[in-house]
Amino acid sequence: MARVLIVDDHPSFRASARAVLEADGFEVVGEAEDGESALDAVRTLSPDVILLDVQLPDANGFDLCALMCANPSRLPSIVLVSSRDAADYDGLIDTSPAKGFISKADLTGDAVRALLA
Amino acid sequence: MSRLTVAFGLALLVVVATVCIALVAATSDGTNRWTTIVLIVVVGVTFVVSGLTALARRRENLARSSVTDVAVALQGGAPVREALADMLRDPSLEVLYRLDPRRGLGGAGWVDREGHDVPEPEADEARALKLVELGGEPVAAILYDVTLEDEPELVDAVTATAALAFHNERLQAELRAEIRLAGVLADTTPGLLSNVDTEGRIIKLNLATLMASGYSSDEEVRGKHFWDVFIDPEERDEMIARFRAAAPGFPPGEYENAFTNARGERRVIYWRSAPVLDQHGRVVSIVAGGLDVTDRKAREHEAELRRGFLDAITVAMPSFLIAVDPNGIVMEDGVNPAFTEAFGWSSADMGGRSFLDLVASEYQYVDRMTIANAANGVVQAERESSWLPREGAPRVVAWSARPVLDPQGRNIVLVAGSDVTVRRRREEETRASEERFRAVVDSSPVAIVELGLDDTVKLWNPAAERIFGWAAEDVIGGEAPMVPPDRLGEFETLVDRVRTGSSVEGFETVRVRRDGTPIAVSVSTAPVHDARGEVISHMAVFSDISDRKRQEEELRASRARLVEAADDARRKLERNLHDGAQQRLVALSVSLRLAESKLGDDPATSASILAGAREELTHALEDLRELARGIHPAVLTDRGLGAAVDALVARSPLPVEADIEPVPLPPAVEAAAYYVVAEALTNVVKYAQASSAVVRIARENGMLAVTVGDDGIGGADPAGGSGLRGLADRVAALDGSLSVASPQGGGTAVRAEIPLVEEGLA
After folding, report:
1. Cβ(B481)–Cβ(B472) under 8 Å?
2. Which chain B residues are Cβ-neighbours of A9 within 8 angstroms?
3. Rounded to whole angstroms, how far apart are CA atoms B70 and B499?
4. Do the beta carbons of residue B526 and residue B498 sit within 8 Å?
5. Span A4-20, pLDDT tens digits
6. 3-state helix, strand and coil shares in percent for chain B, rounded to the nearest 5
7. Cβ of B583 and A17 within 8 Å?
8. How many Å apart are CA A111 and CA B532, to the nearest integer?
9. Are strands B749-755 and B703-710 parallel, antiparallel or unpaired?
10. Which pLDDT band, with edges at 50, 70 and 90, does B602 fall under?
11. Domains B444-544 and B640-755 belong to one CATH topology
12. Is A22 on the interface with B (CB under 8 A)?
């Protein structure tokens, strides 16, 4: 079972995402509400998958993603999420080391699995 | 008495005396001696007396015979000198005549028998002098040989007898002298004198007449008819007829003729003639005296030409000429056509009237003095007075008066003037125009500077003094001092453009004040042309645009802040939507999807998720409502400013007193007022530590005044905080103003004044 870290500053989304992913067979190992705590959680929890909000109070998801992938020994699979549309990010998603992007409204365990496959 | 006679007498006296002494000595007794002496004395005396008597008688006889001879000789018609010379037996005898001093003509000197002047006669060693007198006056002098001195009686007797003859001869001598003088006079006078016989033949003419005739000697003309000499051929017949008609009396007459003389010269002679009569009253000749008036005629002709020329000038000249007598009365024919044309008064109208009638009353006194002074010979300086034409408005005339002699030689005053009405009016207009220009320049709020072609300042108005700080007297004549060194190139370019005749309008640049501070100015320049269209200087007008520049800067900053505020608001809105309602809706969407997936297998969980979703949806709606209120309060839109402010007051945690005048307001003003109250109340709650607040909204002097006050700690900084600045911008956008009064410990009062410009609102 894949171990998931949810990084988002909105508690209501974190709760919904946990419910959906756990219902779809993921193990949610932790939550972080900003970039700094997300990096700490990655170090301590070593998640397989990070559900990373693009718009955090102290960082943006693309920069944070690049930072997390800078450690070559362990590369988590990162899935970017946002309440916005993928089109709003205008190609940034394609050049990012993340596995892919899911609009928050479309978040399901299947959608995450499809990106990780 | 001769020396021989004396010698003989003395010898005889010696003999007689010797005889007598002998006789006396021969007589012995005394008585006889005395008788002898007496006898001798008696005989002697008798002898002497008889001798002297005989001598006197003999001389008398001698004299009588000479006198008789002289008288006989004179009676026979012999000249006095010859008669005297014969009688006195002295052929060298000379007679000179003394002219009668009372007659004058010949003077009072001495002349010889021919009438020639001689010096006053004097005796010398060879000749003695005897003056001959008649009636106590000398009429002649006889100079004779000194040997005749032995017989003075003879000389006396003879000359006395000849005295009457001498008088006659003196008269003749005087006549000769007069004739000689007349001849000299005739030949030296510049006048012409000629003598013609009754046939018109020239007997004699003087030198002047000879010269006028063109001949060179008397002989050539003597005996010729005068008309052949002095009358042109074509006029001769008429002259001959006139001369003959005048015979035989040849009464005095005058005649002027012009002729060409023997030398071909044209002469004009004025003649007067008179007859010369003999003792019987018959005309023996005619004397004609003449004056050569050729030159005078030429001068008269010249004068006439000059007068004609002057008359033509008088008629043709555009100036007015008026001739007045010393009393200021206009002479007959005393005004020229230019005057008549300009004033409508003819010579006939003006002749005999006073010049002063022509002059407006306020000028009459001085003008009277001017004429009087001119009449006294003082040339008067030009003056101006108002003259009244026959019709129309008075004219301004510049005139002068000068004393002149008229053709009759009378002192008159010539008034010469010209109409300067139009010139004066133009001058007046020019002066008024200059005054207006000066007033405009002086009162202009913009600096006006005139620069000459040499870049020197010619005009510097009070606004220029105010704006640039230099006084006019400091800069006029010098170079423009307000051009900063780094703008000299730009200045030259500007000046060059204007010199070529172009204008420059509203050129914005920088100049310096006297104290060195820069000043933003807008310059407009235009060339000044002279009458020929040449550029002679240029005018530069400077407006101080520092205030405008600052206002523009403030406006630009205010706009930027408004844009920024709007951007901020949109960003905030987007954030709020994103962070609030959107997140809730996203979560709701995820929850509903989860509930949907659990619906069949796990209805209880599904129902629980749905209940959560409903709650989430309620939060989302609240978020959206709050958001909408932040964008524009619905209560303001729906129920107006009063209700909206009441809602703010109701929501405030502090007690707030609201006093709101119900005023119909444009939406923008209403919104601005609402946000002033909202922001101010927010600040009161956040910072003022106040126990209460007051809100007042009222119309004052066409403005909407919004005041929010509190009883807090004060000390608020109006410039600090984006909230207040945003409010100020919002109010300024409506031409209003926002002020904050916030003394330390004295509470804070925020006051906005917004103009109510729309019709019917103010």
Report:
1. no
2. 579
3. 125
4. yes
5. 999 999 888 898 899 88
6. 50, 25, 25
7. no
8. 94
9. antiparallel
10. confident
11. no
12. no
- Compute the 3-state secondary structure of chain A and give helix, strand, coil in percent, each to the nearest 5: 45, 25, 30
Q: How confident is the model at residue B61 (pLDDT cuts 50, 70, 90)?
A: low
CATH 3.40.640.10 fits A3-116, yes or no: no
Place of tokens 């030159």: B295
Q: Which two tokens stand for residue B338?
A: 């230019």
Residue with tokens 């964008």: B631
- Residue with more model confidence, B265 or B705: B705
pLDDT by residue (tens digit) across B418-445?
A: 999 888 889 989 999 999 989 999 999 8
**DSSP assignment, residue B379?**
P
Q: Is the pLDDT of residue A28 over 90?
A: yes
ipTM of the complex: 0.81
Domain spans in chain B, listed from the N-terminal domain onward: 3-57, 59-171, 189-298, 317-425, 444-544, 545-631, 640-755
Write out the two tokens for B569: 């608001």
Cα dist from B169 to A96, B77, B127, B131, B744, whole Å: 179, 12, 22, 15, 156
CB-CB neighbours of B444 under 10 Å: 15
Reported for B391-398, long-range contacts at CB under 8 A and 24+ positions apart, including other chains, are: B391/B344, B394/B360, B395/B342, B395/B343, B395/B419, B395/B421, B396/B420, B396/B421, B396/B424, B397/B320, B397/B421
Residue of B576, B590, B619 for testing the chain A interface, max A β-carbons within 10 Å: B590
Concatenated DSSP letters of B701-740: TTEEEEEEEE-S-----SSSSHHHHHHHHHHHTTT-EEEE
Q: Say yes or no: A19 contacts chain B, CB-CB below 8 A.
A: yes
Residue B609 with chain A: CB contacts under 8 Å: 19
From the candidate CATH numbers 3.40.50.460, 3.30.450.20, 3.90.79.10, 3.30.1490.100, the one assigned to the domain spanning B317-425? 3.30.450.20
Asked if B400 and B380 touch (Cβ cutoff 8 Å), the reply is: yes
Q: What are the tens digits of pLDDT across the range B530-564?
A: 889 888 898 999 998 888 888 888 888 888 888 88
pLDDT tens digits, residue range B175-186? 777 777 777 777
CB proximity B594 to A under 8 Å: yes
pLDDT the model gives residue B55: 65
CA atoms within 13 A on the CB side of B456: 7
Three-class DSSP category at B519: strand
Q: What is the largest CA-CA distance in chain B?
A: 261
CATH 3.30.565.10 applies to domain B640-755: yes
Judged by phi (left if over 0) then psi (alpha if -120 to 50, else beta), residue B238 lies in alpha
